[in-house]
């Protein structure tokens, strides 16, 4: 069930129609039911997985809180983490691990093969497992009390606006809101609608339009020259940003319609002056998750330079693997790890620049990020290397179909808006403008969605993770 589908519009409409007439607990039951309906549309058989995963971590949280000894607390923590990593390993990584093991054995001259596996990847499994694990870690560290209400925790794990692709929320931010009364205000509804519109604009007017060109070139990369592949790579940089941030904008917008607040997951990342700043602006909920639960426990920025570099590389390689069970994602993460290590070793971009230096840093950072995206978009690591080779050696003829025009018309609109609203978010920035300016901007965005957007309802890229 996609956000830009009729089925979802009917589901959200039914929730909003009933929501204001219910007390807090009944609102939670309504949202929980809607969340299960939403997820069941993808594959109803995986509803049991979402439910069991939440029950396991709810039980583990209660067990940690009730344990009389440190050993008992660790035991509950280990059980929870083992369960979450276990379902990730089975559904997402089993084929990758087996295939890699077979390839290693074959390279050593050992005859081996892997059986055919038909494991369906549950939508959003990486998101809801990480969100649930953050709760367990915080309960174990005594940063958050174990919750008593099972329905409230079930809702925290499965809340439908962010279930499929985040943002990855923390219990101290989202779960506490399910435990308290909330008020739907006209300002909240207005700003929520603005974010819904802006997110829809990013998705259907930019991401889906640019995706037509990116898919045409990358899916037939041997038939295109370096110029077309380079252009497709730059367009993919904007496609994946608009696709993912568009989803998150709509998720946050829907939460505001319900009187709830969720964290913003993006902060104009392509205006970053350095790779480090990029990860402070891109997929913020994931980068802070790895910072708090992996990087800092590994020692963080403490210790020798070698130790810090090793911890950085571990985090980004694991982050790459989180995105997908393939070596190309590990390489993608490794490249970003190398970027941050190089920035640290060279001591560049330590403080903000101004004027030409500011824009030069943004330009260089965008080139580095786009280079890494090649491994993210290509079907395999070898295909990514082939794309890089073609870009470097064979310009070829430039492929430019008419279908790309709508996306190229809408992209400057996005860049102008984001350049203007820094460091604010779209709804905050626009709501502070004069009524005439608000009307003009909203009309331009709505025009782009209705007349220039792709209406075929393509799936969000991050649903596969």
Supply the key terms.
2 domains, 71% helix, mainly alpha, 465 residues, 19 helices
Structure description:
Helix 9 runs antiparallel to helix 10 and helix 9 (186-218) packs across helix 17. The chain folds into two domains: 6-182, no CATH class; 187-273 and 352-464, no CATH class. The model has no long low-confidence stretch (mean pLDDT 90). It contains 19 helices and no strands. It has helices spanning 6-19, 24-43, 47-66, 70-107, 125-140, 150-158, 160-163, 171-178, 186-218, 226-257, 275-281, 284-295, 305-323, 327-346, 355-377, 381-393, 405-421, 426-431, 435-452.
Principal-axes shape call: globular
Instruction: Provide the residue-averaged pLDDT.
Output: 90
Q: Helix proportion of residues, in percent?
A: over 70%
Number of helical segments with 4 or more residues: 19
Order of secondary-structure elements: HHHHHHHHHHHHHHHHHHH
Structural class by sheet pairing and helices: mainly alpha
> Would you count the extended β strands for me?
0
How many domains? 2
Please mark out the parts with pLDDT under 50 across 5 or more consecutive residues, or reply none.
none
Q: Distance N terminus to C terminus?
A: 16 Å
Rg over CA atoms: 23 Å
* Biggest sheet architecture: none
Write the layout of secondary structure elements.
Blueprint lengths: L5 H14 L4 H20 L3 H20 L3 H38 L17 H16 L9 H9 L1 H4 L7 H8 L7 H33 L7 H32 L17 H7 L2 H12 L9 H19 L3 H20 L8 H23 L3 H13 L11 H17 L4 H6 L3 H18 L13
Helix pairs in contact: 1-2, 2-6, 3-4, 3-5, 3-6, 4-5, 6-8, 9-10, 9-17, 9-19, 10-15, 10-16, 12-13, 13-14, 14-15, 15-16
């Amino acid at each position: 069930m996609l956000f830009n589908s009729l089925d979802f519009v009917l589901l959200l409409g039914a929730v909003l129609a009933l929501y204001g007439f219910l007390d807090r607990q009944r609102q939670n039951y309504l949202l929980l039911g809607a969340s299960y309906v939403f997820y069941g549309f993808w594959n109803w058989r995986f509803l049991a997985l979402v439910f069991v995963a939440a029950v396991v971590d709810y039980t583990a949280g209660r067990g940690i809180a009730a344990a009389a000894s440190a050993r008992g607390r660790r035991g509950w923590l280990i059980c929870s983490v083992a369960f979450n990593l276990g379902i990730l390993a089975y559904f997402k990584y089993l084929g990758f691990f087996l295939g890699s093991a077979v390839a290693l054995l074959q390279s050593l001259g050992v005859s081996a093969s892997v059986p055919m596996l038909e494991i369906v990847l549950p939508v959003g499994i990486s998101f809801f497992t990480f969100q649930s694990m953050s709760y367990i870690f915080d309960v174990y560290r005594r940063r958050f009390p174990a919750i008593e209400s099972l329905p409230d925790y079930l809702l925290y794990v499965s809340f439908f606006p962010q279930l499929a692709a985040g943002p990855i929320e923390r219990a101290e931010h989202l779960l506490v809101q399910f435990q308290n009364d909330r008020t739907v205000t006209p300002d909240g509804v207005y700003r929520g609608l603005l974010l819904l519109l802006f997110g829809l604009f990013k998705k259907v007017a930019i991401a889906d339009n640019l995706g037509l060109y990116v898919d045409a070139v990358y899916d037939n990369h041997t038939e295109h020259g370096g110029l077309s592949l380079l252009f497709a790579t730059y367009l993919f940089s904007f496609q994946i940003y608009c696709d993912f941030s568009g989803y998150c904008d709509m998720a946050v917008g829907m939460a505001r319609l319900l009187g709830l607040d969720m964290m913003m997951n993006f902060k104009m990342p392509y205006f970053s002056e350095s790779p480090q700043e990029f990860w402070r602006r891109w997929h913020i909920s994931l980068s802070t998750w790895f910072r708090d639960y992996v990087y800092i426990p590994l020692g963080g920025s403490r210790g020798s330079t070698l130790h810090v570099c090793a911890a950085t590389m571990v985090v980004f390689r694991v982050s790459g693997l989180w995105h997908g069970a393939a070596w190309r994602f590990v390489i993608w993460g490794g490249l970003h790890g190398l970027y941050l290590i190089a920035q640290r070793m060279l001591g560049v971009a330590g403080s903000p620049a101004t004027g030409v230096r500011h824009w030069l840093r943004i330009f260089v950072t965008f080139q580095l990020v786009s280079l890494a995206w090649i491994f993210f978009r290509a079907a395999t690591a070898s295909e990514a290397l082939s794309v890089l080779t073609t870009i470097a050696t064979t310009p070829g003829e430039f492929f430019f179909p008419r279908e790309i025009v709508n996306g190229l018309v809408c992209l400057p609109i996005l860049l102008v808006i984001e350049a203007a609203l820094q460091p604010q978010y779209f709804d905050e920035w626009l709501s502070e403008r004069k009524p005439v300016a608000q009307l003009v901007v909203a009309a331009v965005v709505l025009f782009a969605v209705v007349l220039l957007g792709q209406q075929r309802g393509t799936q969000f890229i991050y649903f596969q993770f």
